[in-house]
What we know:
By secondary structure, the protein is an alpha/beta fold. The protein is 41% helix and 9% strand. Among the domains are: 11-99, no CATH class; 352-458, Ribonuclease Inhibitor (Leucine-rich repeat, LRR (right-handed beta-alpha superhelix), Alpha-Beta Horseshoe); 477-625, Leucine-rich repeat, LRR (right-handed beta-alpha superhelix) (Alpha-Beta Horseshoe), CATH 3.80.10.10. The strands form two sheets. It has a 15-stranded parallel beta sheet with strand order 1-2-3-5-7-8-9-10-11-12-13-14-15-16-17. Strands 4-6 form a two-stranded parallel ribbon. α15 (390-401) links the parallel β9 and β10 (408-410). The longest helix has 25 residues, at 76-100. It is globular, with a radius of gyration of 29 Å. Pfam families: LRR_6.
Amino acid sequence: MAEAQESPSLVFLCLNTIADQLLLGDYDDDYVQDIYQLPSELFDSLLPLLTPLALHNLHQSMPLNKCDDCGPLNDKSGTHRKRKRWMNFETAWKMLYETRWPDCDSQSHPTNWLEKRNEAKDEITDEWMQMYWERHLQSCLDAAAEIALLPSFYGSIGVIEIPAALLNYMGYRGCMSKSTCDYSKFSYHCKYFGSYARFLRLPSALCVPEICDLLRISKLESLEIQWIKSKENVDGLCGLLKQNRETLKSIELIHCKFSTSFINDICDSLWIKRLNTHGIQHFAIKTSSFDGSNYYSLPAGLATFLSSGRSLSSLSLCDDHLHQHFVKMVLNILLDTPSSIEALDLSENNITGWLSRFQWSTKGKQLSSGIGKSLQSLRVLNLRNTNLLTEDADCLKFALLNMPKLETLDLSDNPIEDEGIKSMISYFTEMSERPFALIDLKLGNCQLTCEGVSQLLGSLSTWKKPLSSLSVRENDLGSKMGALLGKYLCRGVQSLDIDDIGLGPSGFRGAQEEITGDLKLVYINISKNRGEVETAKFLSKLISCAPGLVAIDAQYTFMPEESFSIICSTLKAMKGKLEHLDLTGNLSCERFADTSVLAELQISGKCNIKINSSHAQAAPYDDDP
Ligand SMILES: *[C@@H]1O[C@H](CO)[C@@H](O)[C@H](O)[C@H]1NC(C)=O
Ligand SMILES: *[C@@H]1O[C@H](CO)[C@@H](O)[C@H](O)[C@H]1NC(C)=O
Ligand SMILES: *[C@@H]1O[C@H](CO)[C@@H](O)[C@H](O)[C@H]1NC(C)=O
Ligand SMILES: CC(=O)N[C@H]1CO[C@H](CO)[C@@H](O)[C@@H]1O
């Protein structure tokens, strides 16, 4: 509600009366027409007074909504007015959304795939209204699930009571008219707001056949489901998938336990007969398990799903206790069909030795014939923590030659050791000659030493187009690495993660001495390297040599007190282009936290300097407190 003035004006009182009537739904068409005839100033002052329900009621009966082909508004001024009205509604919805969920960004839609598609549209989309009701519905789903989870619960999920706090947000008041008394039921919210839901997280407690009826009008594009275990869950899910298969683009199944028939049913539900395929672009099964007896064969439904999905561009089978035969079969399918997979995530599965059992074409160069077994479109490969050993790295080289467009490779947390990385250097060299070269390489915690990484950096430095991003974090590289890294920094890398590699003071000194000229660096993580005061000198040099540097993580670097003043004076001289500087974990710096120095450093108002070790500042994600 707007701030009440000392004595509210007559206009304000009238507008509030209108707002009430809109909320109660207690009006006819003519009444709404009259509201739309109000002069712009009045109409514009009305919108911010409306609760979500009232705004929704008014928005829904907006004559302009259905008016693409109707008379009076089709002239120029009409179109202009239409656009302005629409803008006003958008602003009002945005305000309501941000008031209810101030942590605007933390609702992360895993829909990057979908965003691309939306870019082209330049029409009126009512985006904020859609987002508002979508997230409201998610809150209702979560609230209903809490009740449905109780052991004492049985029966229909539709009649579950929605908590008053959620109803209050909508503008609901205790005694509204008879026709609206269903507000308190979960089914009401599904029925009226289900059509706005594009992305939903469906708790398994609600994954029952009844949900299909409740969400009948939804046109879901993205669905995340957790803890699917029972036949009832699968039936509910399959019904929902069938209903939405024409619109669904993204599915994530997490913490599930699949039997062959479960997975077959799920895949079959996505099949669109008319097109003889499915429309899924992103498919993920994470932290789940497949029935033990079936390690040696791929469920037929999944096989068909993978081989026929023309639009499938991202596949994740992360942390699924996959057996190597399973992975091999998946890869065989992806290789044998003209797949358009761009991102493949097999991380957190033990697949030691699987690469060697695979008949990779060893002549990467001949792949242009098109017949060779290759993952032509693969751009992102995640093999983090897959227990790859030195011997596997040797085979990996051949596998990678079959991925001519690979840009991002994550091999972190695999004990491939120096020998492993050395055998891959020839691959790196060959790749650098290709039009698509690697952009992002992660080798964190691979049991590498200074020797292996020196050779790697030597090879990377000869590339025509340098890597944008490199991580060698958590390898025991030692202080000798410093000078080499300093040189490498001058080669155009934009993001470098050297967290916890044992640089020490002399390593930082070595690095600092090698830095010359303009660096392209944007981000660096130098945490846990115990560089003491040399860390500060290194940072000073870096900040003054890298005009594009935006973020620095430097936790637990054991900097003594004088370091802070070194960093401060550099920052001041650079007029605060930095947006993020994390110096947590150094008690000696903490006492500066309160001083005006900090305020002075935040010149641009952009820089977020963290000094305290507590991470509590990070706002906890809290939906509908
Ligand atoms: C990983 O798989 C290999 C081969 O199947 C096996 O020998 C090894 O014990 C497994 N390691 C772990 C940690 O499970
Ligand atoms: C940088 O390193 C620290 C310390 O290990 C870690 O907590 C942090 O997540 C890293 N930052 C990024 C962006 O990876
Ligand atoms: C650091 O902690 C002190 C005392 O706990 C507090 O007064 C100060 O505001 C904190 N500074 C930052 C930047 O969080
Ligand atoms: C918490 C912490 O690691 N503090 C260190 C900060 O740096 C000083 C000076 O080297 C150390 O003595 C502290 O232990």
